[in-house]
Write a structure and sequence with these properties.
single chain, mainly alpha, Growth Hormone, Chain: A, 18 helices, 78% helix, MFS, MFS_trans_sf, transmembrane helix, membrane
């Protein structure tokens, strides 16, 4: 992409995208479901932290949330490229909603077994890639190419809005109605998404070329030959290791070092999502007149600096400011890279390609959780902060390398 194509967008692009009934339904259903997911992480983390050995169990919970993503991702791409995405998304909602509902149902009938939160987290992780790959794979079929940045920014805005509402509301509700009832709300949010997906009128099936596109080896070769896809995927994988560490650090800080308990955890996660909300809104309207890899590198460097704010403990608002910065600069990374991927990946390969790329990127947080857990058991917050910063920012050198910084093409 040349610098001339790095255009300044207008709010009219958002209006055009949202005027499409099918996109609006899918986006709204996804946002509601994501808000429920935000409440679920807070509720499950609080349930686990309330058990003996809570810090070690929290690390295990984070691994259960993230490790199965890789296995589930292997199955998602072919499903999305073979079946109507509306039906795949609805089936995912039924399965994950039922898993989440098992905890409030078990609590209502007695006491939920200690292993159940981990099983629910594993099911959630196993199926997580269905909406993460399914929604973006459907976007090019719903909007014009000129509106891809706006549509991808709206996806990021959905993540941000849900992330602000879900964790903050979940943290407040836990004290009032209890964690199991918070999980019941998430189970209901899946029903909303299922209904929205099935209400989309336009079939979201791949074209006839999908079955005869290429062999698996040829499809992989298409992705590996693209320098932009390879370098950005590796950089995002590293950044997600740091975010995986943060998923353990944030509850640990709220439980042991910050005033407010679950409300402090909700504040941190809401600040992260608020940053994503603001960053996504800007990214949908503006792309800098820089080489794409350089723009991503500078955004990743700025986002990485936010991890150091955990050193401002015990001041929750100072730590929250760092979380805000992480979201503010990481959201444009996602929006700009995703639009470029949609332009570069052939239509018949989108389901498989987005499954492969997002699976790789989402499979690395367990490594971060595994790295953070022993550090926090020793109580070494400074080492945790330095580790997150370095893991998040060292890949910037790869993005800025002379051989990688040429415009993709």
């Amino acid at each position: 992409m040349s610098t001339q194509d790095h255009a300044l967008g207008t709010p009219a692009a958002y209006r055009r995208v949202l005027a499409d009934r099918d996109f609006r339904l899918l986006w709204a259903g996804s946002t509601v479901s994501l808000a429920g997911d935000g409440m679920t992480f807070v509720a499950l983390a609080w349930l686990v932290l309330s058990q003996p050995g809570g810090t070690a169990r929290l690390g295990l919970l984070t691994v259960c949330f993230t490790l199965p993503v890789f296995a589930g991702g292997l199955l998602v791409g072919p499903l999305l490229d073979r079946f109507d995405k509306r039906h795949v998304l609805a089936a995912d909602c039924v399965l994950r909603g039922g898993a989440v509902a098992s905890i409030p149902l078990a609590a209502a009938s007695g006491e939920a077994p200690a292993w159940l939160p981990f099983a629910v987290a594993a099911v959630h992780g196993l199926l997580k890639m269905v909406p993460l790959a399914g929604f973006p794979a459907a976007i090019p079929d719903l909007v014009r190419r000129a509106d891809l940045d706006a549509a991808n920014a709206l996806e990021a805005l959905g993540f941000g809005t849900a992330g602000v509402v879900g964790p903050s509301l979940g943290g407040l509700l836990i004290a009032g109605v209890g964690a199991p009832n918070v999980l019941a709300i998430d189970a209901a949010s899946y029903l909303v998404f299922a209904v929205a997906a099935l209400a989309v009128r336009r079939p979201l099936t791949p074209g006839p070329r999908a079955d005869a596109a290429t062999t698996p080896a040829a499809r992989l070769s298409v992705l590996l030959r693209d320098r932009f896809l390879v370098v950005t995927t590796l950089a995002f994988m590293a950044f997600n290791v740091a975010e995986g560490m943060l998923l353990v650090v944030a509850p640990w800080l709220a439980k042991t070092h910050l005033p407010g308990g679950s409300s402090a955890l909700g504040l941190l996660l809401a600040a992260l999502a608020a940053g994503e909300l603001a960053g996504g809104a800007v990214a949908g309207l503006w792309r800098p007149r820089l080489n794409p890899l350089r723009a991503l590198a500078f955004a990743q460097l700025a986002a990485g600096g936010g991890f150091l704010a955990v050193l401002l403990t015990p001041h929750p608002w100072g730590v929250a400011a760092g979380f805000l910065a992480i979201g503010l600069f990481s959201a444009p990374m996602t929006v700009w890279a995703q639009s470029l991927r949609m332009e570069r990946i052939p239509g018949p390969l989108r389901g498989r390609a987005f499954r492969a790329l997002r699976t790789l990127m989402q499979a690395t947080p367990p490594l971060g959780a595994a790295l953070a857990t022993p550090i926090l058991r020793e109580g070494d917050l400074a080492l945790a902060a330095a580790s997150m910063f370095l893991v998040a920012t060292v890949p910037v050198l790869m993005l800025l390398a002379p051989g990688s910084s040429r415009p993709p093409g």
